[in-house]
Amino acid sequence: MHQQAGGAEDAGPQRQPAADLAFEIIGDPTADGVDIVKVFAQAAARMGDSVWVGYVADGQPVACRVRVGNHPVHSGGDRASFAVAFDAALLRSRVAAGAFHPESFILMDSPTGWPASDPLPGPSRFGLPVCQVPFRALASRIPAFPQGDRVVALGLLTWMFGYDPTLVRRLLENRLAPRGCRYVSAGLRLFEVGWRDAFRFVPRPFHVGRSSHAMPSGRVEVMSGREALALGALVAGFTACVVRSDHPVVQRWAQGYAALGGRVLTMRDAFMRRALTGQCGGSPCLVQAADPGFEGPVLVVETAGAPVELEEACAPGTAGVMLGMAAACGVPRVTLRFERAPRADALWYPFGVDPLVAASGCPGGARPVVLAPTTVEECYHFMDLARRIAQQYRRDCVVLVDAGLLGAVQAWRRRPGSALWAEWLGEAVVDENGRVAS
User: Fold this and answer.
1) CA–CA distance, 295 with 64 (Å, rounded to integer)
2) pTM for the whole thing?
3) C-alpha distance across the termini of the chain, in Å
């Protein structure tokens, strides 16, 4: 994740620029636990492109939409331009759902093992032209690597988009390194096979127009908005969180947070605590029960729904008993709230909702401090800023995140915290202890 930004090299013939392009990986994109989509997205971000990644079917890795552009992209777009298909049955359902343009084409494994040398589309499949690529035949040259055809596809995509193969090799090597040198060697050889032979099977290459902004120099961070929020929460000191929604967007974020070492608690845990002890089982109390030494703000994660209520009384028979608000328990909350979350099976951007309306609080009461990140870098740092504001002023804070930002993959140069606070807080400053002072 922490690497120098690589320079580009000539990876093939001149590409035609494309301002915005979406494609899909139909089937499991992982090769022995390594998600080739994440490697591709990191390479694209380091090359200066804007990237968005989203998984279909409740976040399970069975189909993935990737959108690449020279301007910030925060959704999967409308329809995809092509697909790399490993699952014919799932491809049928995606075509039926209208996921592709009429002029799209499909890259599928050749049933005969090695197609003709002409890379023009052949017979149609589900109404779309098919380009046969011998993914499995190429991967069989190195049989020791499970699902090596996915790594071959990564090499093919690298050639299609004109990305620096040296950069992609380095990213892939980092992903494979924990498995040992034999896996690293096999994976890199599979990537080379796909990149070297791509021109024989792909009808045309793509080249997304590079952004006019210069690539960040020095030490570069690359991650998705989802990863930035989870890692930022842990770095800020939120070792546990309370999840108040069963929405797939929230559950997938919680899975990533737990994979990084965080502890995920639910409102069911709060009800069980109250039934066993007879005490308030709200958000702060629940986290304090999990960590007796906990004294700071508590992190609550939810999605769009009822407005953020700040003055619920902590009295028997009220909802405040279970929520444990700051006014009742003396512990401020930092609420990570996902707005405009799409359906589990939809990747299209749902317009028409103003997320700030949900953060107005109860009539007559103090409004929470609202932080609304618009970049992945802000997602990472706003978690720490929200905790510091809540801790110093004993006031609830809402980090309001558009769900479309979760799949965005962006690169930024690491900067000292002092420069960040000065840029975001204006007249406010941060003292040596990291507290916000006006």
Assistant:
1) 41
2) 0.75
3) 35
CB 19 within 8 A of CB 208: yes
| CB-based contact 133:139 (threshold 8 Å) | no
The domain that holds 36 is classified in CATH as 3.40.920.10
Domain interval for residue 310: 223-437
Q: Are residues 235 and 193 in the same domain?
A: no
For residue 114, pLDDT over 70 is answered with: no
Count CB neighbours of 112 within 10 A: 9
What pLDDT, in 10s, does the model give residues 30-50? 888 889 999 999 999 998 888
Residue 153: both structure tokens together: 């596809």
